[in-house]
Amino acid sequence: MSSPIIVFDLDGTLVDTAPDLLESLNHSLGAGGVPHTDATGFRSFVGHGGRVMIERAFAASRTPLPVAEHDRLFALFIDHYGENIPGKSLPYPGVLDALDRFTDAGFLMAVCTNKTEGFSRKLLEALDMTRYFAAICGQDTFAFRKPDPRHLTETIAMAGGDRDRAVMVGDSQTDIDTAKAAGIPVVAVDFGYTDRHVREFEPSKIISHFDELTVALADKLIAAAN
Ligand SMILES: O=C(O)COP(=O)(O)O
Ligand SMILES: [Mg+2]
């Protein structure tokens, strides 16, 4: 039997990237003549990668966004964000202890994110976290991405895990919908990036700190799913 696996979302779950994403978003919006957004606006734009973030910010300010302009601003966003990694981004409190705990308990771990794979690897490397993960899969790793459940199930397969003994941990509706569609239990953190409280999306469990993400909880969720 292959190992149990715990799959993490990245932005807003493992790492607090909001200050840097917001700065790069505003750099790009400024170049497009759209007002800067704040932490509240950011929460409703994030979750589907940088392109969608720009698109949503334009829609919110009722400004048309022709494709060529979208491409230009996305390139500015990407360059700015990529150059500044890791910037101010840091793992949330208790993340590293939790990753050590699950390593010691024999779990595999993986990242399934709508960030690009390249930026995800660069960020995790800069924070010395790459070593924990058997797979790091971004929005461009496969031909599909969250909320398509195959992004999650293929991440599990790539990590060598067992989808019948898997748990997803995320911060957004995208993560919860993805896990549910894959038939995998999902723990939602309540401190990430979502404009609506995660309870509305009915995850299997909500936590407010990584100390609550125990091996016993993961075992319990896996047992209940089978
Ligand atoms: O970058 C985004 O928009 C979302 O990234 P996440 O899937 O790691 O939360
Ligand atoms: Mg997230």
UniProtKB/TrEMBL annotation:
Pathway the protein contributes to: Organic acid metabolism; glycolate biosynthesis; glycolate from 2-phosphoglycolate: step 1/1
EC code(s) of this entry: 3.1.3.18
HAMAP family from the UniProt entry: GPH_hydrolase_bact (MF_00495)
MF (Gene Ontology): metal ion binding; phosphoglycolate phosphatase activity
GO cellular component: cytosol
Organism this protein belongs to: Mesorhizobium zhangyense
Entry similarity comment: Belongs to the HAD-like hydrolase superfamily. CbbY/CbbZ/Gph/YieH family.
Reactions the enzyme catalyzes: 2-phosphoglycolate + H2O = glycolate + phosphate
Protein name stated in the entry: Phosphoglycolate phosphatase
CDD domains in the cross-refs: HAD_PGPase
Active-site residue list: D9 (nucleophile)
Named cofactor requirement(s): Mg(2+)
GO biological process, one term: DNA repair
Function: Specifically catalyzes the dephosphorylation of 2-phosphoglycolate. Is involved in the dissimilation of the intracellular 2-phosphoglycolate formed during the DNA repair of 3'-phosphoglycolate ends, a major class of DNA lesions induced by oxidative stress.
UniProt entry keywords in alphabetical sequence: Carbohydrate metabolism, Hydrolase, Magnesium, Metal-binding
InterPro entries: HAD-like_hydrolase_sf (IPR050155), HAD-like_sf (IPR036412), HAD-SF_hydro_IA (IPR006439), HAD_2 (IPR041492), HAD_sf (IPR023214), PGP-like_dom2 (IPR023198), PGPase_prok (IPR037512)
Pfam families, A to Z: HAD_2 (PF13419)
Domain of life: Bacteria
Residues the entry annotates as binding Mg(2+): D9, D11, D171
